[in-house]
Amino acid sequence: MGRIRKRESDPRSLEAYGALREGVFIAGFSFERACSKLEWLLEQDRWRGVGDGFDDVNKFISSIKLDSFRTVAEQRKRIALRIKQLQPAVSNRQIAKTLGVGRRTIDRDTGPNGPPVHQKASKINAGEGLAGPNGPSSFSGAAAAKAVEAKETKEERHAEKLEARVQREAALGAKQLALPDKKYGVIVADPEWRFEFYSPRGSLNSSADNHYETSALDVIKARDVPSIAADDCVLFLWATVPMLPHALEVMAAWGFLYVSNFAWAKDKAGTGYWNRNQHELLLVGRKGDIPAPAPGMQWPSVIEAPVTEHSAKPEKFLELIEAYFPTLPKIELNRRGPARAGWDAWGNEAEPAEVAA
């Protein structure tokens, strides 16, 4: 059988594909819109003309990830059935990976409409099974047999854990939003640390007091953060390198158990006695039954971002926290400027959230 000629690309297909690859991270880009674009690309084999020119629907589907959305069950089922209807060659395993759920979920959603998960390799080699009369010819032979007969992979187990974790986090967020008095499942704090310099010269040149009011350790420890923390809560606490022991004391005083940290790698070095510090730590503490990220959902521990005004922290870390805990109520203590959309803020320099025109 000759090679299937790749479909010529067109601007609308490229735009739809680009939105699925990149637009999912844009605020307001809903799961429903993404599914509509995916469904449109599957119609009439429009997917062949995007990217580098796909000749295998599984390769096309594998290039798209919609697991940044919390899918509604009926929407997920509808799009899974639609994929199977339009492109029978797509395996349940690949649909599950694209939608960010376990394969068993897609097996259940598609039911009798989906092809058998396990078929004999001889049938596939003979041209039967998943490919069907309209399926792409590249999905055949040993590669097809391997895809169909493969056991549940590590990625599938991760997807199932991710789905369970998303549901658990969403249920926890709904519960906390209903609590009397304002409670938060996520607290980010950037305390006004007071650093003791060895010399008056250091105090004059580099002290944070030159930029904002600072507080003694006991004052920060006594801050009534426990009163705004939900029973199940995660704390993200900023600490400069020399203030690390103090930060751990504060975390314990506020009722949190230290579990991990991230490092902000800056684009320029600062001051220090033992070295010129070029990183800052974001400590992670928890109380109660707060879910850790599911396997494959974790961000790297070191994040590079440029230094801006004194003490300001990169918004990238708040994006990380939102990805980990999309539904939990959040507050940022010692926020500088307007509160981030969807967050509350507290501090001498905090301002009300900006209202869109």
Strand and helix map with partners:
Blueprint lengths: L10 H11 L9 H12 L14 H6 L10 H14 L5 H8 L3 H8 L10 H5 L15 H9 L4 H24 L6 E6 L10 H7 L10 H6 L6 E11 L4 H10 L3 E9 L13 E9 L14 E3 L11 H9 L5 E4 L3 E2 L5 E3 L3 E2 L6
Parallel strand pairs: 1-2, 1-6, 3-5, 6-8, 7-9
Antiparallel strand pairs: 2-4, 3-4
Describe this structure in words.
The chain is 36% helix and 14% strand. The chain has 357 residues and is an alpha/beta fold. It folds into 2 domains: 142 residues, no CATH class; 188 residues, Rossmann fold. The strands form 2 sheets. It has a 7-stranded mixed β-sheet. A two-stranded parallel ribbon has the order 7-9. Helix 4 packs across helix 5. The longest helix is centred in the middle third of the chain and has 24 residues.
